[in-house]
Design brief:
This protein has about 280 residues and is mainly α. It folds into two domains: about 10-195, Tetratricopeptide repeat domain (Serine Threonine Protein Phosphatase 5, Tetratricopeptide repeat), CATH 1.25.40; about 200-280, Tetratricopeptide repeat domain (Serine Threonine Protein Phosphatase 5, Tetratricopeptide repeat). The protein has helices spanning about 10-15, 15-25, 50-60, 65-80, 85-100, 105-115, 125-135, 145-160, 165-195, 200-210, 220-230, 235-250, 255-265.
Length: about 280
């Protein structure tokens, strides 16, 4: 069974890049004050001046109440829509939803911020927050990978738009993990097709890994599986070709050893295939 991707969870990110960026780029310097009751209904619709309301939202966030904070940041915008604080509150609401693990609301809030303020200095962070919200929802490879595709698209957008930022640097690292995860899904399906005797369908999945995910950890196994499928389909020359590619790129891997043994047993005369280093001589 393929080991699923285990992305960094929210607890790690709170103390890492996402929390640091939020603190350095979004928060007002003089946010102080502590709030009253814990329930959102106690503070939600009480009219207050913008500084007090924003400070209360920040206080709730600092006290580990992101759901309440998100509602209060929303109130900043509702009660004071034309103040400079409203723009900051929009993105802080998205960040608060993210910390509360309400990722759909985080994406919606960040997208709304971008639709209203596309050229704002904090737009890169909004794009990054959208990508993180999708990334946190990546599921096991046995499930549908729509969210994983959305995470890849959003992370790629961060890199494309803001290539020289710290957001892009982190997005590139996460893209490597996302691509590995998607390749793992292809391998899972391909192996299922092999077990079912659907060799052509399996071949297509493994070819996709080799062509589109060749830098992932699954590429060597994909080449071995292509060797297997080619032999099952009665094209030993293709099997030898895949084994040769495997040997050229992963000469010391267990997958090449297996591919070499397979070709020697089932297609010894198809073509010369160099022996793995571990068995040579």
């Amino acid at each position: 069974m393929l080991t699923p991707l285990a992305p960094a969870r929210t607890g790690t990110l709170r103390t890492g890049l996402v929390a640091g960026i939020a603190a350095s780029t979004l928060l007002l310097g003089a946010c102080a004050g502590r709030g009253g009751g814990d329930a959102v209904r106690d503070t939600n619709y009480v009219a207050r001046d913008v500084e007090t309301l924003y400070a209360e939202a920040r206080s709730r966030l600092d006290r580990g109440q992101p759901k309440v904070a998100a509602e209060l940041f929303g109130e900043v915008e509702r009660q004071h829509p034309y103040s400079p604080w409203a723009r900051r509150a929009q993105l802080m609401a998205a960040f608060s939803h993210y910390l509360a693990r309400d990722y759909n609301k985080s994406v919606q809030a960040a997208q709304r911020f971008l639709s209203i303020h596309p050229g704002n200095r904090d737009a890169p962070y909004a794009y990054y927050l959208i990508a993180l919200s999708y990334y946190e929802q990546i599921s096991d490879v046995t499930r549908d990978q729509k969210i994983t595709e959305q995470a890849r698209t959003a992370l790629t957008e961060v890199v494309r738009r803001f290539p020289n930022t710290q957001y892009a640097a982190d997005a590139r690292l996460k893209l490597d993990l996302v691509n590995d995860h998607l390749a793992g899904k292809e391998m899972e399906i391909g192996r299922f097709y092999q077990r079912s005797g659907r060799w052509i369908a399996a071949q297509l999945r493994f070819q996709n890994v080799v062509e589109n995910y060749q830098t992932t950890s699954h590429a060597a196994e994909a080449l071995y599986r292509l060797t297997e499928s080619s032999l099952a389909l009665g094209v030993p020359a293709e099997a030898v070709r895949y084994a040769a590619v495997l040997g050229a790129n992963y000469p010391g891997s267990e997958w090449y050893q297996k591919a070499y043994d397979l070709v020697q047993r089932h297609a010894p005369n198809a073509s010369a295939t160099p022996a793995p280093a571990a068995t040579a001589g």
